[in-house]
């Protein structure tokens, strides 16, 4: 009789698990009335239902939760249940804590606080779980000195990795500048209207019909210029248009979401390169495409080639030399107590920028 009862509980427990897996999401916490509504346990037998749930908890297919004097359960995937079955009690406890944090990960100190395990035991459990490839350590850009863990099969969310602009936890400035430059030029092409102007008369060039039958510009080659669109222009690119253009350009190895593109758009607005319209719905460029292209074409000196001394000094020698920010500049004169001959800042400055 006992074997028959156990067999009946096992069959009902299997049906109950399948019904829960089809009905509830993995993160859904369900209670006894929810299980009875599935009509798996005959006649709403509560005692039989509790036997089935206990069987599923023992098989690691249900995770038991108790809050406010009420018992609930969550479904555990079969592959996760197999992992839990192969762990000892301490390892299972640590695994459940890491599992509960999802893609956010958990700090090792919080694991110790929630499990109340001794540090040596916790370290052994973490090492064992990492060795079985059940969990992995991650780098959190917001807390780089904290050692954190998450399930090995999950990808950390953007709050942990920093989003598309971080590579291995380090801000990728070259990538940011590349995408930002592309965005500025793309927006500029849709913010300015290209026209041709007669160089001599300063007016739009006219096309005339020649002997060959083709329409050609009369006189010299016209000059190309750009003028802004009128105030009522409605064709400025939106965030969706800019995001689509970036993803179709193949300049980024991953598909960028609009949230990441908005971050760059805001940066370009702060740098006075773009102007936000309609509370961030559309954007227009401050500079025309030719100016942007010329600015972006300016490259730093080739690596390995020493730049000229004047290039190192910069264009404004007064502000870059020690004299510019010196608070005693007005008191400095040859032969005085404060003089160029006795200045202690000139030699280090010349050694730094000129090498002598």
TrEMBL record:
Protein name stated in the entry: DNA-directed RNA polymerase III subunit RPC6
Family as reported in the entry's similarity comment: Belongs to the eukaryotic RPC34/RPC39 RNA polymerase subunit family.
PANTHER family, A to Z: RNA POLYMERASE III DNA DIRECTED , 39KD SUBUNIT-RELATED (PTHR12780)
Location(s) in or outside the cell: Nucleus
Pfam families: RNA_pol_Rpc34
Domain of life per record: Eukaryota
Known role: DNA-dependent RNA polymerase catalyzes the transcription of DNA into RNA using the four ribonucleoside triphosphates as substrates. Specific peripheric component of RNA polymerase III which synthesizes small RNAs, such as 5S rRNA and tRNAs.
The organism's taxonomic lineage, starting at the top: Eukaryota, Fungi, Dikarya, Ascomycota, Pezizomycotina
GO cellular component: cytoplasm; nucleoplasm; RNA polymerase III complex
Presence of keyword Nucleus: yes
GO annotation, biological process: transcription by RNA polymerase III
Main localization (coarse): nucleus
Keywords, alphabetical: DNA-directed RNA polymerase, Nucleus, Transcription
């Amino acid at each position: 009789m006992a074997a028959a009862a156990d067999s009946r509980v096992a069959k009902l427990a299997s049906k109950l698990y399948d019904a829960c897996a089809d009905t509830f999401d993995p993160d859904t916490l369900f209670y006894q009335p929810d299980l009875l509504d599935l009509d798996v346990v005959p006649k709403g037998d509560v005692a039989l239902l509790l036997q089935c749930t206990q069987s599923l908890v023992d098989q690691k297919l249900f995770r038991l939760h108790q809050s406010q004097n009420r018992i609930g359960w969550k479904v555990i995937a079969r592959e996760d249940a197999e992992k839990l079955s192969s762990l000892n009690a301490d390892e299972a406890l640590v695994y459940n804590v890491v599992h509960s944090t999802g893609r956010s990960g958990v700090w090792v100190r919080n694991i110790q606080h929630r499990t109340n395990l001794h540090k040596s035991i916790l370290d052994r459990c973490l090492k064992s779980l990492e060795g079985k490839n059940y969990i992995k350590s991650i780098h959190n850009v917001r807390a780089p000195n904290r050692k954190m863990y998450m399930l090995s099969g999950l990808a950390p969310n953007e709050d942990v990795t920093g989003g598309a602009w971080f590579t291995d936890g380090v801000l990728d400035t070259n990538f940011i500048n590349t995408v930002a430059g592309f965005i500025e030029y793309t927006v500029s092409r849709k913010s300015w209207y290209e026209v041709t102007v007669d160089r001599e008369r300063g007016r739009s060039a006219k096309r005339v019909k020649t002997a060959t039958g083709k329409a050609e510009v009369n006189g010299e080659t016209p000059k190309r210029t750009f003028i802004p669109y009128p105030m009522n222009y409605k064709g400025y690119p939106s965030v969706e248009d800019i995001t689509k253009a970036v993803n179709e350009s193949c300049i980024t190895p991953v598909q960028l979401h609009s949230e990441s593109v908005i971050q760059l758009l805001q940066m370009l607005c702060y740098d006075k390169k773009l102007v936000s319209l309609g509370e961030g719905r559309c954007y227009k460029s401050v500079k025309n495409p030719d100016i942007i292209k010329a600015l972006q074409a300016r490259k730093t000196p080739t690596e390995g080639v020493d730049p000229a001394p004047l290039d190192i000094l910069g264009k404004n020698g007064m502000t870059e030399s020690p004299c510019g920010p010196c608070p005693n500049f007005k008191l400095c004169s040859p032969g005085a107590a404060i003089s160029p001959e006795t200045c202690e800042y000139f030699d280090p400055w010349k050694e730094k920028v000129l090498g002598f």
